[in-house]
Design brief:
heterodimer, A: 331 residues, alpha/beta, seven-stranded mixed sheet, five-stranded mixed sheet, B: 346 residues, six-stranded parallel sheet, two-stranded antiparallel sheet, 14 helices, 46% helix, globular
């Protein structure tokens, strides 16, 4: 992998570059969804792609999420590699039948004859004062679907390589992009085509006091909390899960065994959220190492508030992570 | 104005070549033979729950035979006749209804996918499959089927709208058999003919007598031809009736009158076609007998094949979830293979 030259890009630009490379490399790749063509997507993620690849390969669909998912499934069945965009992850709900009954199940119900190399991209999460229903984090819902993968990048550089892997993958992949990071995260991104492995978690920061575990938009929150703790002399480990399904349990458990304390951070509602799965895995695989209960810092058991004035109270921030850290350390 | 219902048999017309007509009859008779056998097997406990199609042979076989070999069928669970006519081996179909994993994998050469259980979800997928042919430079057409109840679902609307907007080569067959399990058509929709809706999507809509094999076959052929020429999708509504229960678990006497069933039994699509063939001297009792004996033989042979299918292995539960097994499937696979399910708690 040659990755000499880099430029500073935001997440929108990194994803756009990945789509551009995938379209140019493989004729079977198609990009479609609502407003992805002429407009270039409501977040401009697909900007310029229709001009470059034509209306046949990058196209607007009618406004119908179930139709988009069904179309993607049929195209993949016929040998294409569709990359469908759902405008906001909270709009995946009308397509849940296609996702739960078919997208995740076709390979199994055809005993391997019909594999579906579909990628569904959707922006998720809060932090930028979106209207109602635009800030949902449905990763646990998707992760509870057998047969699909769930990938949530936390930086432009990771997003580009992971998306290219997702498009190469033979199975359906949900690729959730944190809205907060679209223009908020800027980083050095290598030029050219490169892939990053799915199913691997990353230790972003070493530390012995506790392990913070999260993904996507929560990674910067965890890093901020870790930085504050460091200034007070507490070194914590930070793990970015990156792929929720299949989960890299090995890296996760290793990280928890080293510190004996675990805090899971996610912005979906707490009950049944993906953090509950993480906590259960830790209980199953590392309970003998624990010096404190596994704690969750998550959204409240209520819909994500559309009111920008109180949104910050719902979405986990560094202060709430630090409060949990204090609780774990003084247990 | 009422749409015209396309019919031939009631008018004594014979619009097909003799061989073509005989092919249609044999395929319908074969399908009926399977349906009757399947019901018997189910009663013997040798099939799981089964959805009979008896009475709908003309609709299903008519459309399947109108397709070319390279074309696809995307069926719902009542379309066994369609699958047989499209070339699915009998033993695979039996194994499918036996819920044996070997019956879930349809052979590569057969351009048919597994039947859909959730209602209407196949519709947008059929559109995607049809478009994939275009991208690949192949001119395959996709025929997909749904019952009248299924047309109430959002996916039916989304799929038809997508097909029209994207110009997908699809034939949408609605087998209007009068009931969505127990709910009659009058409680399902306020429109007299579903084909009327076609105009709302911007595609041709055709109503055919679904128990008239000539009508279904010829209209399906036109629709397939249109699709192949790049003229887009067609909605084909076949007026028909399911003579048997919804599934082997259903009791239709609770929701529909005997007289209604009897009236439709008189319009049995197989008897109607047979009568037309007999009138032209193309069929008789002797030929029927020969055909039935051949079908009996074929069925016995294919059923014997299913007995040779290996016992499902416990670890098959977690196979084919992903192209490559993930760590969680791998762990379960090893455990199931060791037979832990008999000895240990998970």
């Amino acid at each position: 992998m040659v990755r000499e030259r880099t430029r500073v890009l935001n997440l929108v630009q990194a994803v756009n570059e990945a789509l551009d490379l995938a379209l140019s490399r493989d004729e079977r790749v198609l990009v479609f969804g609502e407003d992805v063509g002429r407009l270039g997507g409501v977040f401009r993620v697909t900007e310029g792609l229709q001009e470059k690849y034509g209306e046949r390969r990058v196209f607007d669909t009618p406004l119908a999420e179930s139709g988009i998912l069904g179309l993607a499934i049929g195209l993949a069945m016929g040998g294409m590699r569709p990359v469908a965009e759902i405008q906001f992850a909270g709009f995946l709900y009308p397509a849940l039948d296609q996702i739960l009954s078919h997208l995740g199940r076709w390979r199994h119900r055809s005993r391997g004859r019909v594999g579906l190399p579909v990628v569904v991209r959707a922006p998720y999460g809060g932090g930028v004062h979106t209207p109602e229903q635009h800030a949902d984090s449905p990763e646990a819902l998707l992760g509870h679907t057998p047969g699909v993968k769930v990938v949530i990048p936390s930086s432009p550089e990771r997003a580009k390589g992971l998306l290219l892997s997702a498009i190469e993958d033979e199975d359906p992949v949900f690729f959730l992009e944190a809205i907060k990071l679209y223009r908020g995260a800027r980083a050095e991104v290598p030029e050219g085509y490169y892939t990053l492995p799915l199913g691997k978690a990353r230790v972003l920061k070493e530390g012995k006091a506790a392990t913070l575990i999260g993904y996507g938009g929560m990674v910067e929150v965890m890093l901020e909390a870790a930085e504050v703790a460091r200034k007070e002399g507490v070194e914590v480990m930070v793990v970015d899960l990156e792929t929720l399904v299949p989960l890299d349990e090995e890296t996760l458990l290793e990280a928890v065994r080293e510190t004996g304390r675990a805090i899971v951070v996610y912005e979906a509602m707490r009950t049944g959220g993906f953090g509950a799965e993480i906590a259960a895995r830790i209980a199953e695989g590392a309970i003998d190492y624990l010096q404190a209960p596994v704690l969750r810092v998550a959204g409240y058991d209520a819909p994500y508030p559309p009111f920008s004035a109180i949104e910050h109270l719902y979405r986990p921030n560094a202060r709430r992570v630090l409060a949990a850290l204090r609780k774990a350390l003084t247990y | 104005m009422k749409p015209q219902v396309v019919q031939y048999l009631n008018k004594g017309e014979f619009p097909l070549g003799e061989e073509e007509a005989l092919r249609l009859y044999r395929a319908m008779r074969r399908a009926r033979f399977f349906d009757e056998k399947a019901l018997t097997l189910q009663r013997q406990g040798r099939l799981g729950v089964y959805a009979p199609f008896m009475g709908q042979e003309a609709a299903q076989v008519g459309v399947a035979l109108a397709l070319g070999e390279g074309d696809w069928v995307v069926p719902s669970y009542r379309e066994s006749a369609m699958l047989l006519a499209k070339g699915l081996p009998l033993h695979t179909l039996i194994l499918y209804w036996r819920a044996h994993p070997a019956g879930w994998r349809f052979p590569e050469g057969v351009r048919a996918v597994n039947p859909y259980i959730p209602i209407a979800t196949q519709i947008p997928q059929a559109v995607g499959l049809a478009l994939a042919g275009r991208y690949r430079g192949e001119d395959w057409v996709v025929a997909t089927s749904i019952g009248d109840g299924g047309t109430s679902k959002g996916d039916f609307h989304e799929g038809l709208n997508f097909a029209a907007v994207l110009g997908a080569p699809v034939v949408f067959l609605v087998q209007n058999n009068g009931y969505a399990i127990s709910v009659p058509r009058s409680r399902q929709m306020k429109v007299d003919y579903l084909a009327r809706r076609a105009e709302g999507y911007g595609m041709p809509g055709v109503v055919v007598d679904g128990n008239d094999a000539f009508a279904v076959y010829l209209e399906a052929k036109k629709a397939v031809e249109r699709a192949r020429k790049g003229e887009g999708p067609t909605l084909l509504e076949a007026l028909t009736y399911r003579l048997a229960p919804h599934t082997t678990s259903d009791d239709p006497s609770r929701y529909r009158p005997k007289e209604e069933e009897e009236a439709w039994r008189a319009k049995d699509p197989i008897l109607r076609l047979r009568k037309a063939l007999e009138e032209r001297g193309l069929w008789d009792q002797e030929r029927e007998q020969t055909l039935l004996e051949a079908l009996e033989e074929e069925f016995a042979r294919e059923l014997a094949l299913t007995d040779q299918a290996p016992e499902p292995r416990p670890e098959e539960i977690v196979e084919h979830v992903y192209a490559e097994m993930g760590p969680d499937q791998r762990r379960a696979f090893e455990a199931l293979k060791r037979g832990f399910h008999l000895e240990e708690a998970w």
